Amino acid sequence: MQPFRGVMVLDVTHVLAGPFATVQLAMQGASVIKVEPPGDPDQSRFAGADPALNAEGLGTAFQTQGAGKRCLALDLNTEQGRTVLLQLAERADVFVENFRPGALAGLGLGAADLRRRNPRLIHCAISAFGAEGPRGQETAYDLVVQAATGLMAMNGTPETSPVRLGIPAVDYATGMMAAYAISAALFRRERTGEGAQIDLAMADVAGLLMASGLTGFANGGAEPRATGHALPGVAQGMFRAKDGPVAIAANNLRQQQRLFAALGRPDLVRETREEAARHRDADRAQLEQMVAERSAADLEDLLRAARVPVSPVRSVAEAMADPQRRARGSFARPETGGPLLPLSGFLIDGQPARHAFAPRKAGADSAEILAELGYSEAEIAALAAGGVI
Q1: What is the CATH number of domain 8-209+330-385?
Q2: Which of 93, 171, 283, 365 is labelled catalytic?
Q3: How far apart are CA 222 and CA 198, in angstroms?
Q4: pLDDT class for 338, splitting at 50, 70, 90?
Q5: What tens digit of pLDDT does each residue of 182-213 get?
Q6: Domain 236-314, what architecture?
Q7: Pairing relationship of beta strands 94-97 and 8-12 according to DSSP bridges
Q8: Which among 59, 81, 89, 197 could disulfide-bond with 54, CB atoms 3.0 to 4.6 Å apart, if both were Cys?
């Protein structure tokens, strides 16, 4: 049995962080209804590598977090649309939104409004900086949050910083943190019967991504800065093999001992951290020379056998071809067919999560969802004719 089977989620989110949160719940069995305005659906539907899919409103940016969700087109600026959403909220277990704080409350659809009708509801609001504080009303995307939180200033080299992370890391981390917060609230509800109001800020999640650096700064004043591939250990970082870069992370003395023994230089093994620190620069220069004399593949084979963490720097295409991905089932098609999509990064009882069905077009399930609420065919047709759905 999937953990969230029987849990109903209203997904009133757009772009990335919110939809990425709800797709995690869908993969664990939750029944997710994605709500979008008619004629102006989630902008991610039109973004991705395939122009034909973009034109259909099924761009790869949307497909990444759109599978396993039924889609309801609903105009919340109309009284009828708000009525439908309130009716759904009365039945729902979870409500997720990522509008500017207070925007839905202005329509009578805020957390207090919904929880009056359904005290067991888990309401999760995702925003850039949180509902309170001097920046609470600001909106932002991943790029701006990276800039605002210091994350960008920690990335790159001293010469190139600040540099944006090459992926929307804050968005994805926020989505995963939201799924975790919702899971925690659902677990508490099982014990107490109480719903919850979750206020989740992207900026706070960015701080968690910088946790060790910020902890050091908060407690000692050492401001973390961009260091590129330079790491403190003698055998930590990026090294240039004969045919390309290799990442080596022999982070402790035991791993360093195995590393130098494998390379035929046991004389470079140091007995204490203090001794290793004293000889770091000279030992690293010799290590760089030894690495430069070998191919990346040879180094990988040699150091893997010695149980030293190592990998050539692979392209995305090379990484996707790694047989470990197939063994883990980290990408799979939905159960009913469709595109290859990423799954959750964990197994439960040896089984990966699955997408129940492929991403659907905006409003594809509107009539079905309204019928489940008790609307007649004539009433559904009237709402469609009026542009409410």
Answers
A1: 3.40.50.10540
A2: 171
A3: 32
A4: very high
A5: 999 999 999 999 999 999 999 999 999 999 99
A6: 2-Layer Sandwich (3.30)
A7: parallel
A8: 59
